[in-house]
Write a structure and sequence with these properties.
Bound molecules: shikimate-3-phosphate
CATH topology of the largest domain: UDP-n-acetylglucosamine1-carboxyvinyl-transferase, Chain
CATH superfamily of the largest domain: Enolpyruvate transferase domain
Number of strands: 26
Strand order of the largest sheet: 24-25-1-26
Largest sheet: 4 strands, mixed
CATH class of the largest domain: Alpha Beta
Structural class: alpha/beta
Length: 453
């Protein structure tokens, strides 16, 4: 019997071709489950991402007393319990690896007269939670940590939290969403101010469910979103667009692999999510966008990407929030570019599923790429040979450190490596992009399991 390890090897390929079906958007899938749960009536969610992260949220909502049925592969139906309808869970809510799941749910529980304990896997249990519980405490919510601002945390909500005006030091959609969700049951207006606008899926989906959300972007780029408590959400079917953060791996793969052309239909094009596309185009990437339209309150488009010689650039630091999840795969593009690429204002990457600056720098150095790093920035020097072609030596192992985007980034680098790259800890890819390996291989990649002898 052959035993497969939790490792995959990725080898050099000659081309990538075809039309690829990217999975549903993770951010929108989490929100669709939570908001439909507190709506009045039944919501049908189509195109939902069936990944372990989204299942963690789905199971948590069931533990909070919501009836959810999976009717087809990517279709679920949620019977909303209405505002104040969530039940106290009888066991801790285990959100696995899902940062968005745990943080938004804390906000949702905060507006209910119930107590819930939140737990997660090793990676989630090392991520900072005070950025969420600090504003919730200001709303009069009781928060108890066993550790030092880390999971597990117990939140005792109240049916009517205090409304606040919260000035956030960071642009974070998770923090913004948690406060707005708690604010739905507050007595008065709850506002969140961010230094730069982060993804606004929560604001858009609340409006889709009939809630008035006031938003404004100021001249200095700061952004404010407000809700007035005491509202009712009306069930309304949702179509989830395909995830631009998952499409990012195919986009970069198509650019850096010779003789390639990939078409990616119906990708989410929210302006707060497409900083990578702007950046790659500035680097000389041939990316065509067509058929722009709106689906269920979100913008989508078809993307065509063709092999390109990229050049290094300075990425404007105020673009970081709109591509915060894309820096690992941008590092791969930068490694294949001519000249250095500078990425600033990315200190948040040290608090993701893993320290993404440290691990990307480690893996790129193993690949023969020069990288400078500071606490909040990276400079990646494109790896050039005398022939003028980028050259990645490969022939090394790198651990994902429980980070799906690290795993997919180094598997993508394997497509252009001299020797194969082995990534350890690849099961984490299931959190956001189930079917990633099969999809890449279908279009020309050579990613294969490492067998135990
Ligand atoms: C997300 C927000 C971002 C992002 C994460 C998903 C969301 O995190 O990195 O993958 O769905 O709200 P922050 O809010 O911490 O920036």
């Amino acid at each position: 019997m052959i035993n497969h390890t939790d490792s995959l090897s990725s080898e050099a390929i000659s081309e990538l071709q075809g039309t690829c079906s990217v999975v549903g958007d993770k951010s929108i899938s989490h929100r669709s489950l939570m908001l439909s749960s507190i709506a009045e009536g039944t919501t049908r969610i189509s195109g939902i991402l069936q990944s372990t992260d989204v299942h963690s949220t789905l199971n948590a909502m069931r533990d909070l007393g919501v009836r959810i049925s999976i009717v087809e592969d990517d279709v679920v139906e949620v019977i909303g319990v209405g505002m104040h309808g969530l039940k106290e869970p009888v066991r801790p809510l285990d959100l696995g690896n899902a940062g968005t799941g745990v943080r938004l749910l804390m906000g949702l529980v905060a507006g209910h007269n119930i107590t819930a304990t939140f737990t997660g896997d090793e990676s989630l249990s090392s991520r900072p939670m005070r950025r969420i519980t600090e504003p919730l405490s200001q709303m009069g919510i009781q928060v108890n940590y066993n550790g030092n601002g880390l999971l597990p945390v117990t939140v005792t909500g109240r049916s009517s939290p205090l409304p606040i005006r919260y000035n956030s030091p960071v642009a974070s959609a998770q923090m913004k969403s948690a406060v707005l969700l708690a604010g739905l049951n507050a007595r008065g207006v709850t506002s969140v101010i961010e230094p730069t606008k982060s993804r606004d899926h929560t604001e858009r989906m609340l409006q889709h469910f009939g809630v008035e959300v006031n938003t404004q972007t100021n001249l200095d780029g700061s952004y404010i979103a407000s809700v007035t408590g005491g509202v009712t959400l009306q069930a309304n079917d949702i179509i989830v667009p395909r995830d631009p953060s998952s499409a990012a791996f195919l986009i970069v793969a198509g650019l850096i692999t010779k003789n390639s052309q990939l078409l990616l239909p119906t990708i989410g094009m929210s302006p707060e999510r497409i900083g990578l596309i702007t950046t790659l185009r500035e680097m000389g990437g041939r990316i065509e966008i067509s058929n722009q339209r709106e689906v269920g309150g979100e913008q989508v488009a078809d993307i065509k990407v063709s092999s390109s010689q990229l050049k290094g650039i300075v990425i404007p630091s105020d673009r970081a929030p709109s591509m915060i999840d894309e820096y690992p795969i941008l590092c791969i593009a930068a490694a294949m570019a001519t000249g250095p690429s500078l990425m600033e204002n990315i200190g948040e990457l040290r608090h993701k599923e893993a320290d993404r600056i440290a691990i990307m720098a480690k893996g790129l150095r193993l690949a023969g790429v020069t990288v400078d790093e500071t606490e909040t920035s990276m400079r990646v020097y494109g790896a050039n040979t005398e022939k003028g072609d980028a050259y990645i030596k490969g022939g090394f192992n790198i651990s994902s450190e429980h980070d799906h985007r690290i795993a997919m980034s180094f598997l993508t680098l394997g497509f252009v490596s001299g020797d194969r790259i082995i990534v350890d800890g690849v099961s984490t890819i299931e959190t956001s992009f189930p079917g990633f390996v099969e999809l890449m291989n279908k279009h020309g990649a050579r990613i294969s399991p490492i067998n135990l002898a």
